[in-house]
Structures are given as structure tokens and as C-alpha cells.
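Co-fold these.
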Amino acid sequence: MMKKNIQKFCHEVALTSLDISYHAHTGHIGSALSISDLVAVLYAGRLDVKKDRFILSKGHAAAALYSVLYHKKIMGKKLIDSFGADTGGLCEHPEMKDPGIEMTSGSLGHGLAFASGIALGYKKINKKPPHVFVLISDGECGEGSVWEAAIFASRMKLDNLTVIVDYNKWQCFGASSEITPLEPFAKKWQSFGFSVHTIDGHNIEEINKTYHRIPFEKDAPSVIIANTVSDTAYQLLKTSSSDTIRYLMNLNIKRQG
Amino acid sequence: MRAAFIRGLIKAAERDSKIMLITGDLGYRFLEPFTEKFPDRFINIGVAEANLVTVAAGLAAAGWKPFIYSIATFASMRCYEQIRTDIVMQNLNVKIVGIGAGLAYNKAGPTHHSMEDIALMRMLPGMGIVSPHDQQQTEKITASLAKTSTPAYLRIEANPLRQVLQSQTLQNTDMAFLVTGTKLWLADEVQKKLFKIGIRSNIFRFPIISPLDKKRLKEICRTYKIAATIEEHRVTGGFGSAVGEYILENNKTMKLLKFGLKDIFTPISASYENLLKYHGLTAGNIVRRIISSM
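Predicted complex below.
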């Protein structure tokens, strides 16, 4: 996809995330918006949906993934409109049964180990194995299982695995620096054997370029620490005067990371 | 029992190149026959049970058929939510092998006594639970489990204290014993003691706890007025509870006595037989309770 088209795609994905969240009156909007550019750019370019896999470990941001899958025509209109429905629809967290969903997530701390298992499984039988991307949140790094998996991925030299960390610095009760202090964050990943790149998670060109440089290093798993802001997309969109925006104005979306 | 499991797994792995063995840093001096034969299909994950389960789920999602191996307490409890979410909810083909189930680690203390694992696994819809009676059956069941494509928990207890041959089915009997796991020798002792005092019984073997063989249970309920379950697991929530639920739900009138481990922890070092005694799991105790309830 051309640069201008990627930008448009990201914009549409963010809008759809807002729309479906508004219609379902669900939370976690900030969380979905902080990752929407990261997921949209991945699907717009680097990810080959026919063989690569994308695991959304921070399942509470499902609205962004559903929106990407909808705009990639993997998920139909009827299905995405059923997000958070009262009569049987898409859940607020991804379910493996739904099209394009690679993992049932929602319980934090599972995605990295699951992605590592898949990456290893691929590596065992392919000389050029497909790539596995897993998106985790910063608050999620409080789960010990994330670091169990990090040790394992590095030991297994999974250079077909990339972790994208949504570093929006907020979690349920407040700033992650107060609840789950992660700094020096890049050094932590480095010391676990990962090859680290820190980027602006809303700079579409930077995201795209970084994705195309993967793997950063032979025989090492990659991690992208993406500095994001929960309401960046919202800031960009607030000039529009839709019902969605009015609804969002009443929410403290910063606290949804 | 562990060696029998490995023999069964080797047989399965010879037939199916997707079978893998993954351990949580346990099984030293038991797993070698497999690891030497199939070094590429063995991983020691390390001391990280959550990772053990979820990595196995990921491998299954990439087409592999992992058997994960740890002491039953750690294989079932430490990573319970991982089993529920990553294996069972996603219906992935991972087999969990819990070794040393029950009181097998008799001197290790209650952190190693696996007395709740059947109850936990029973709560997971679609999870198979198998508890073999002896070494021969363990080997056979492992090989046949490997041919299935759904999640299952293989419960491996201590070696049976005595081997029991297939007993003859008696006619005109007074009661039935329903047994899972290696406590077959105990049921056999109880049966012989009761026979001496004129109480005739038959033993029904239930190596498969889930899915429960309801057809067979129905038949037993039709034939007997009284039955007893024997298992090396807490009486709460285990095999006996599963049989009891069937009786209640189906309005059966068969009286059920449940024999198993007490609802306590046992922080003492003792021989295996003494620990069973501590929990009241002896032939004498079972016979006494049966007589007083008749």
C-alpha cells in the first residue's frame, strides 16, 4: 500500500474502532486507539495474512483488530456490527472462532508464550518460517508469564517472532510508572536477549519502516517498544462532530490504557 | 508407571512424526529413552509451568501434537488458567501428563500431593481425563491418546502395590466397586475380605473419568442397590463425585459410598502405605464402613 493510502487506512480503522465502540457502548476505547495505527500499518504492509500470524495479547483492545479485519475484508459488515451485541455477537475480547482471529485472548500474559509456541512450531519445519507478531500492553508486563516466555523465545532464537509493546503508560488505576514501573524498559528486553527498537507508535512512516526491517537481528526475537498515547487518534478526529465524538467527550479515555 | 508412559509415547512417536514431548524440568532419568530417540521432538521448557502450557498450545496451533510432562500438582494447578484458556477453550490438541498423582510423593510433603487435579480437570468442558490402573494399561492408553485430536489429562499415580488380574464377574452379587487409577489392588483386597464374610461384589474398572461412560453407569445402577467408588484423590470433586452427580441427575436410587483421600493436607513424611492409612484408604477401613452401611 502507498504511504498516502496507509494513512487513509489508519484513519478509517480508528474511525471504525470508535464507531463500533460507541454503538456497543463499551469501554477500552483508549486502549483500542493507542494500538490502531500499529495494527493497521502491520496489516497494510508487512503482514502476509496468508502465512504470517498476528496475535492480539491485549485482547481488551479488540475493537482495533476487528476494524482492521473489517477494512481488510476478512470480517464482514454484519459481523463487525455485532460487536458487543445483546443477541450473540463479537465479544469485547477476541475469540479464535471468529474470522482472522488467531487466539482467544482477554486474559493478559498469554499472548507472548502462545506466539512463541507458534513461531517455534513454524521454525521446526520451515527454512524460511512465517513470521509471528504479538502485541502486548505495558501493564500486561506485570504478568510473570510474559517474562517466562521472553526467556524462552530468546533461548530458542526465535527471529521469526516480533513483540510489539503498546507503551501508552496507562493502566486501569493510573500511570503504569507508579503501578508497574518498567524503566529501563528497552534495557529489560535487551537483557532478556531481544533486539529492541523504540518508535513513535503513531508515526505511520516510522512504524512501517520499522516493520520492514524485521528481523532486526539473526537468531534473536525482535521487540518494538511503541510509545503511544491512548487518545492520539481521538485528538486527530475530534474536529468531526459526530455522535461518536460527543459520546467520547464524556469519557475519561486517557484512563483506558 | 512413568517408564510405561514413555514406552507408550515412543510407540506413538514412531507412528506420528508430529508427537512432541515437553517437560517442565522434570522426568530426569525417565524421559531419556524418548529424548535420545527423538532429540528434535523434545524440549525442556524449564521451571515455568505457565509457559509450558501456553507454548504447547502455540505448538499445537502450528500443527504439532505436544505431550506436556510435570508433577501432577504443577501440571494441573500452577497453570490452571493457561490450561483453561489456551488449551481447552481453543480446543487445541495438547495432552497434559501429571505424574506422581495422589500421594506418590509421600515424603515430599503436601506441595507435591496431587489430591485435587481430577476435580480441577472435570471443570473444563471437553477435557478428557484418564487414570490408568497399571503399567500395562498406561502404555496402551498413552499410545491410543496420541491418536485423538482433543485435549486430555493423563493422570499417572504411583506404581500399584500389587498387580490384579482380570477377575471373574460374579453372579448374584450384593454390591459394586467402581475404581479409577491404581487403587485396583485395594478394591481387590476389599472384595476378598468381604467375600469371606459372605458379601459378594464385582469390581468395575474406570480408567476413563471424563467423558464418563454413562451407559455402563446406567447398567450398574440398574443392577445394584449399593456401590462404592475408590480413588486416590479427595472424596470431594473427584471420580466419586462424578458418579454421585450421575446418580442424582438421573434419579437413580443406588446408594453410593465414596472412598478417597480426606479433605485435609498431610504435612508429614510417611511411607506410601502409611500415608494411605492416614487418609483411611485401607481395606480394613473400607470393609468396616461398608458393613456398617448395609
